[in-house]
Amino acid sequence: MAEYLAITERTGLGIATVMQRQGASAAAVSAAMGCALPQGPRRTAEGPLSIIGTGPGTWLAIMEDAASDWVEMLQTRLAGVASVSDQSSGYLVQRIAGPGAVDLLQRGVAIDLHPAAFPTGSVATSVIAHIGVILWRLDDAVFDVAIFRSYADSFRHWIDLTQSGLSHEQ
Fold first, then answer.
1. Nearest to 15, CA basis, from 53, 71, 94, 73
2. 55-103 pLDDT tens trace
3. Helix or strand run (H / E) with residue 32
4. Terminal Cα-to-Cα distance of the chain (whole angstroms)
5. Fewer Cβ in 10 A, N or C end of the chain?
6. In terms of C-beta density within 10 A (0-12 exposed, 13-18 middle, 19 or more buried), how is residue 54 classed?
């Protein structure tokens, strides 16, 4: 099963919720951030920064190898147009990759993960095993899943049980 699926925790991430302020436009937030923001449930990336559209006027900003003051810099940059809340210690991001990624995730999420319905760059806020998740597709066989850190053990337990079921079926 190990060659079929790789599950790794993404570390060193700076994670922040960005919420457009009333009266500010998405274009103003985008200009202040210095990058294009996705409209709708999509992911965009520019270098080490990924922006995940999670709702109207709401994004999850994820910086790889983030400096300790990254969120404060983002708050300063977005002052007046968006509220920024540090989520770095609140979320854990799991990367699920390999030919079995769709099979595993499809057993937990009530979303069609076929590439025609959920192509690369797609984002969904959903539930897997009663655990709230934000899920996005990086390519055909690679997904990132953000969960609240306090549910990490429960999510991993679900993965282990589901993987066990998948291996018995093969």
1. 71
2. 999 999 999 999 999 999 999 999 999 999 999 999 999 999 999 999 9
3. helix 26-33
4. 10
5. C
6. buried
Token pair of 93 as six digits = 């991001």
* Both tokens assigned to 19: 């919420």
The whole model's pTM is what? 0.91
Q: Token match 């539930």: residue? A: 127
Check: CB of residue 134 under 8 Å from CB of residue 140.
Answer: no
Instruction: Sheet containing 91-97: give its strands across.
Output: 6-10, 91-97, 142-148, 131-139, 123-128
Is residue 42 within 8 A of residue 125, CB to CB? The reply is: no
Give me the phi and psi of 104, to 5 degrees please.
Answer: -65, -55
Q: Is the pLDDT of residue 1 over 50?
A: no
pLDDT value of residue 163: 83
pLDDT in tens, 6-43: 999 999 999 999 999 999 999 999 999 989 999 999 99
- The C-alpha atoms of residue 170 and residue 142 are separated, in whole angstroms, by 21
